[in-house]
Amino acid sequence: MADDIHIPEHCEHEAYNSSCLHDKVPPVVKTLVAAWQTEDCFDHVGPVPIPSHTAIINIIYQVRQILFPGYFTKTKLHGSNLEYYLGKETSELYERLSNEIIMAIRHECRRTDQPCSHCEELGHRKALSFIETLPGISALLSTDIRATLAGDPATSSSDEVIFCYPGLLATSIFRMAHELYLLKVPTIPRIMTEHAHSLTGIDIHPGATIGPGFFIDHGTGVVIGETTKIGASVRLYQGVTLGALSLPKDAGTKMKDVQRHPTIEDDVIIYANSTILGGDTTIGTRSVIGGNIWLTDSVPSDTRVVLKRPELVYSGRKGGTS
Description:
The chain is of the alpha/beta class. The chain folds into 2 domains: 48-201, serine acetyltransferase, domain 1, CATH 1.10.3130; 221-312, UDP N-Acetylglucosamine Acyltransferase, domain 1, CATH 2.160.10. Helix content is 43%, strand content 9%. The protein has 9 helices and 14 strands. The strands form 3 sheets. A 5-stranded parallel beta sheet has the order 1-4-7-10-13. Helix 3 packs antiparallel against helix 4 (82-112), helix 3 packs across helix 8 (188-200) and helix 4 crosses helix 5 (119-151).
């Protein structure tokens, strides 16, 4: 049998080595390094660390464990260990969040060449301020869950809403990011909401203002801009955009503190794929905006806006038979 073994004349490994192009890589690296040394390139090469994207995502889930005790934990919770568990998780959250906020502030100072902001002290104070908002966030999310149960006949279970609904996931992450945004924490709030965006397809800027009882049904494709103001008990469906009108090239600096996105008052319903644009646009209380509507003008309270019924054209063989 040994005489039947075929041995190739040239080893395939030798042929691979002869065709390897590793020596072509270093010149590309030199070009990259040269590019990173120009003002036109964005990099973070230096002694000051930046916030950890992974750590911030872990913070999101730790906050959810605190806000919804027993839902996202391996530990079995009961009355006798709940205070210990929440104390442990909240203390750990304070340490983690302090570190990330300190790095975010320090990086911002370096990037914008600011004077010393005493980032260590400031980071700890902002982390504690965020911890102090947790009871309020929990209360708001309770109203969001009740609004979902009241507005969606597809479920009667708060457990299902908490575990499964992308609208509540996006809203819960928004509500924690919004508090950090109000505390003027750099970078971290946007990392949080963009993580929610990547998971759910729901894009809510952390600067938006959203009242209690907020319900996003289905949710994919919802966009809510930075200066949007949403009142209480508002319901949105998939594909809704609350956006800005066309802006000038220098809008990033000149219009930063100007309301560019619409105001949605209490008890408004906006159906799927409708677009509402502009900082001067207000949708009045209890109004209903139908699907596929484009609005750049305000709508009074108690108004229903719908498209005229389209004419449907059916084509095919007469009588429906071939």
